[in-house]
């Protein structure tokens, strides 16, 4: 599996210039105060993984990888592990950016806000990728793009509906609860998604 | 007899194609050429052997029940599947040395050097020939005992093809090694194959030792009146041309003896394929 992890990380390395440019661009916007970088940066890991899936599909990597011992199970596990590595890196980048910006702007660092942003990023990104991956493994990256787009719309509309209908205080309670047990919640979602993806991939043909 | 590949009653059905109950065995220490038209079922067979697709039937590799164990000793070149093109040959070494216990970086870079493949150039920047050579270098660098090759010489010029064939012949110096190779370039197979399996529309038309095909099979050209005097069981296929007929016969010696025929041409695999498919 280490080989498959390295493969995805080498793809990231191949696109590093582009991702660094995006990072610098958003860091600049964060400095000027126009854009909330905290939300955007971790989603860079989503972009990175999507591009990795695209390269795999374009070069029919999956077919080739299945001729490697334990390819079928390790491909899926490696994708999840690389995702976790990237989410950790991008979340840490946000953390450092907060510290850096508060230093150069000479503003006090709100540790509570920084921590909740850090946790929120991890939960949000894990959730998005955990929904995406079984879809990608099932239908491939091209069809999955449409499905993911539809899911995002459904998610936003549902959230909007909930916020308008449900008492905001109740929603805050739910979010607080999630934040309190974020690690259990995240690990649970991750394991469920991984199990589903492995199940899908075991049956998949190329 | 030790078997490198044993395929029994392999069946795979798609909407518009069926691989129909095919069986063959590749003995260890031999090369099997797998020939057939486009869409005949060659790649489907190879994908089944490697578990890339699901199938009915039984496939055993290297006499092992566990396919994952067998895959450790198998090198593969697939027709159109490889590493993501953004990577380079050096990256592949980094990946594969964490994947195969037997990965030999020294041997891999020796192949890259011999094939003149730049190690830091992205795969997408390589010529088609170089791309294929890189695939072959990757397939060989973990000291496999069995090579499964889907069109490995396609897109290569004659010099490169001859280099590759020489590598395959060197690989076969070890009597424990075997090659299963599908190819359109049947002339390549004539030089190296011990067995030829000919597949058409998902069925095996022919499974024979290569030297038997090349030495015992033959082509007889004759006129219509001569054809009428030849028993149907004495030829496999007949193809009608404008002025004469071409017969594919199975045993040149017997045919010569029976019909006192003066001219029986040697047959190439290409002619055999064409006659089998176009003849009646």
Give a verbal description of the structure:
The complex is a heterodimer of chains A (206) and B (280). With 206 residues, chain A is mainly alpha-helical. Chain A is built from 9 helices and no strands. In chain A, helix 1 packs across helix 6. Chain A is globular and about 55 Å long. Chain A starts with a helix and ends with a helix. Chain B has 2 domains: 208 residues, Rossmann fold (3-Layer(aba) Sandwich); 62 residues, no CATH class. In chain B, the strands form 3 sheets. Chain B has a 6-stranded mixed beta sheet with strand order 5-6-7-3-8-9, with helices on both faces. The mean pLDDT of chain B is 91.
Write the layout of secondary structure elements.
The complex is a heterodimer of chains A (206) and B (280).
Chain A: H1 2-14, H2 16-32, H3 37-40, H4 42-58, H5 61-65, H6 71-104, H7 111-165, H8 168-180, H9 182-203
Helix pairs in contact in A: 1-6, 4-6, 4-7, 6-7, 6-9, 7-9
Chain B: E1 3-13, E2 18-27, E3 31-35, H1 42-49, E4 56-61, H2 67-71, E5 74-77, H3 89-96, H4 105-114, H5 128-140, E6 146-150, H6 158-171, E7 178-182, H7 186-192, E8 195-200, E9 203-209, H8 210-216, E10 218-222, H9 224-228, E11 237-240, E12 245-249, H10 252-259, E13 265-266, H11 269-278
Parallel strand pairs in B: 3-7, 3-8, 5-6, 6-7
Antiparallel strand pairs in B: 1-2, 1-4, 8-9, 10-12, 10-13, 11-12
Number of domains of chain A: 1
Topology-level CATH name of the largest domain in chain B: Rossmann fold
The backbone outline of chain B, from C-alpha atoms, is elongated
Strand order, sheet with most strands of chain B: 5-6-7-3-8-9
Please give the most extensive interface between any two protein chains, plus how many residues each contributes: A-B, 29 and 32 residues
Oligomer: heterodimer
SSE pattern of chain A = HHHHHHHHH
């Amino acid at each position: 599996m280490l080989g498959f992890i390295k493969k995805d990380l080498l793809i990231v390395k191949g696109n590093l210039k582009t991702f660094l440019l995006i990072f610098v661009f958003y860091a600049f916007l964060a400095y000027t105060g126009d854009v909330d970088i905290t939300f955007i940066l971790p989603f860079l890991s989503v972009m990175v993984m999507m591009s990795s899936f695209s390269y795999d599909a374009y070069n029919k990597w999956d077919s080739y990888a299945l001729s490697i011992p334990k390819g079928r199970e390790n491909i899926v596990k490696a994708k999840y592990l690389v995702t976790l590595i990237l989410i950790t890196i991008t979340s840490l980048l946000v953390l450092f950016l907060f510290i850096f910006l508060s230093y150069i702007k000479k503003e006090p660092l709100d540790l509570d806000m920084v921590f909740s942003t850090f946790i929120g990023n991890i939960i949000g990104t894990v959730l998005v990728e955990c929904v995406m991956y079984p879809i990608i493994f099932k239908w491939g990256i091209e069809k999955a793009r449409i499905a993911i787009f539809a899911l995002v719309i459904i998610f936003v509309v549902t959230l909007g509906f909930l916020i308008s209908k449900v008492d905001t205080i109740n929603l805050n309670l739910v979010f607080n609860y999630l934040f309190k047990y974020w690690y259990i919640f995240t690990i649970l979602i991750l394991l469920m998604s991984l199990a589903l993806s492995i199940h899908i991939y075991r049956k998949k043909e190329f | 007899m030790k078997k490198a590949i044993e395929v029994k009653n392999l069946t795979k059905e798609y909407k518009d194609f069926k691989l129909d109950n095919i069986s063959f065995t590749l003995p260890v220490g031999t090369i099997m050429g797998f020939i057939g038209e486009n869409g005949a079922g060659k790649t489907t067979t190879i994908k089944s052997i490697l578990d890339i697709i699901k199938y009915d039937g039984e496939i055993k590799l290297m006499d092992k029940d566990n396919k994952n164990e067998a895959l450790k000793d198998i090198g593969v070149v697939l027709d159109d599947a490889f590493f993501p093109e953004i990577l380079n040959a050096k990256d592949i070494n980094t990946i594969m040395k964490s994947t195969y216990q037997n990965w030999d970086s020294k041997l891999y870079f020796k192949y890259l050097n011999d094939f003149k493949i730049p190690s830091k150039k992205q795969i997408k920047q390589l010529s088609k020939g170089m791309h294929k050579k890189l695939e072959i270098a990757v397939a060989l660098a973990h000291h496999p005992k069995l090579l499964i090759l889907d069109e490995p010489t396609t897109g290569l010029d004659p010099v490169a093809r001859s280099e590759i064939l020489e590598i395959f012949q060197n690989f076969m110096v070890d009597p424990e090694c075997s090659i299963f190779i599908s190819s359109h370039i049947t002339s390549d197979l004539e030089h190296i194959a011990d067995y030829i399996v000919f597949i058409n529309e998902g069925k095996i038309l022919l499974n024979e030792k290569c030297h038997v095909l090349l030495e015992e099979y033959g082509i007889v050209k004759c006129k219509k009146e001569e054809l009428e005097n030849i028993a149907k069981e004495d030829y496999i296929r007949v193809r009608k041309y404008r002025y004469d007929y071409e017969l594919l016969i199975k045993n040149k010696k017997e045919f010569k003896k029976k019909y006192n025929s003066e001219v029986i041409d040697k047959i190439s695999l290409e002619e055999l394929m064409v006659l089998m498919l176009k003849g009646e």
